[in-house]
Amino acid sequence: MSEETATFEALGLSAGLLNAVRDAGYEVPTPIQDKAIPVVLLGRDALGCAQTGTGKTASYTLPIIDILDAGTAKARMPRTLILAPTRELAQQIAGNFETYGKYHKLAHALLIGGAPFLEQERALVRGPDVLIATPGRLLDFVERGKLMLGGIKILVIDEADRMLDMGFIPDVERIVSLLPRIRQTLLFSATLGPEIRRLADAFLINPKEIRVSPPASVAQTVSDTLVRVSPRAKADVLRKLIAKEDVQSALIFCNRKRDISGLRESLRRHGHNVAELHGDLPQYRRTETLDAFRRGEISLLVCSDVAGRGLDIDKVSHVFNFDVPINAEDYVHRIGRTGRAGKEGRAITLTTAEDGKLVDAIVRLIGRPIPTVSADGIAAESGKQADTDATAKPAPSESEPRKPKTRRGGRAARSKDQDARAKDDRSGRGGKRERSGEGADKPEVGMGDHVPDFLNAPVRVRKRRRTES
Ligand code: AMP
Hints:
This protein is an alpha/beta fold. The protein folds into two domains: 3-211, Rossmann fold (3-Layer(aba) Sandwich); 222-367, 3-Layer(aba) Sandwich (Rossmann fold), CATH 3.40.50. The protein is built from 17 helices and 14 strands. The protein has helices at 15-23, 31-41, 56-68, 87-100, 117-125, 135-143, 160-165, 169-177, 194-203, 234-244, 257-269, 283-294, 328-335, 356-366, 375-380, 410-426, 453-456, and strands at 46-49, 80-83, 108-111, 130-133, 154-157, 184-189, 208-211, 222-228, 250-253, 274-277, 300-303, 318-321, 345-351, 372-374. The strands form two sheets. The chain has a seven-stranded parallel β-sheet, sandwiched between helices. Strands 10-11-9-12-13-8-14 form a seven-stranded parallel β-sheet, sandwiched between helices. Helix 2 (31-41) packs parallel to helix 3 (56-68), helix 3 crosses helix 4 (87-100) and helix 13 crosses helix 14 (356-366). The longest helix has 17 residues, at 410-426. The termini are far apart. The structure holds adenosine monophosphate.
């Protein structure tokens, strides 16, 4: 079907869904919806290469609602399972189900870490048709004998590439091993690297491959800049940038959770309306903070990569990378939080002389140089645009104090980063492991007392990501 002629009516959706999408204000299907909906309705497995922001959630929730409408639910035996890497994405998917399923009598349950078990168990007992879950919490319910997966007819694995980054694949493999072999499986990922292909080979049968945008492309509506800065001047330069730019609402990404609170406090002292968001906060605080940010009550949100993917907040005018992300893909996801829904967005990344390799990896991934300015220009100028020298590399002559490189073994360094992200899901897994934000600001030493299960699982080394943290 060509994009010009695509209509929701032509996709074979029920009248209830057509009304729901009309109520949501959608006029035509997005390309991923146009391609995926007929495939899902036919019951075929699908491998979707699509980023968040393309409308991919509706591309599977809409047809699933129509498929499920034909059957009935049983207590503790859902018929569809949707796995998401983060609680925020899972909540967003649940929101989509409510929006699109408003004219259907289908129930869903949300099983995510950081929220009370009891409430989630009640939702399970009520017999949800659809279960939306993060892998850790789902396995907790299975291990406690509170959930049976033998009735699952449709499995969706959303953001599979992020599952991989966060070390959740062993959990996902275990979950899949508990599902009936005869089922429909849909796997979505922003990139289709060899590891995702291997998962697709293991989980999907003769899938229809659907691609809607080149992997890791950056939205045309985002203009991005690198600002060369010395490590010690970062906070100062960030404040100057916030003052100089017309910031309505911004996400400020840090690589380490321990930097987030300090930066939030420093911005607060300078009069900014700012909050923080990371995986060590209790879930209710994460939800409250995001809601306040969405409503515009908070204008700056200092965050970890927990906010990097999947979040759909259309008013974010700026993304600041206080640190260059360690994984190039995260650059694309972080800056994709702005410039949404056709609006112009600005993404500014602070880069030090030590970030050269990380920046190179980003440039290779997005396939173009990123305009670069010096922080000196920002400090000196008052409002006018700094000179750009369209090169991606920080100047080697930059006069900043060079700390001795603390390059540790690639595997250990990567594990710490992975572990920090993995806690986003696992901090809510199991009573004993439940953390309630304590230690969020403390430097993390190794794994602390917690060795995540995935580190004990067989290691698949991703060469590309063996970088220092
Ligand atoms: P997603 O990629 O699923 O995160 O969706 C991104 C945004 O696109 C969400 O805010 C959806 O509400 C919106 N959206 C989904 N489908 C459509 C559509 N056909 N037309 C307009 N907006 C849409």
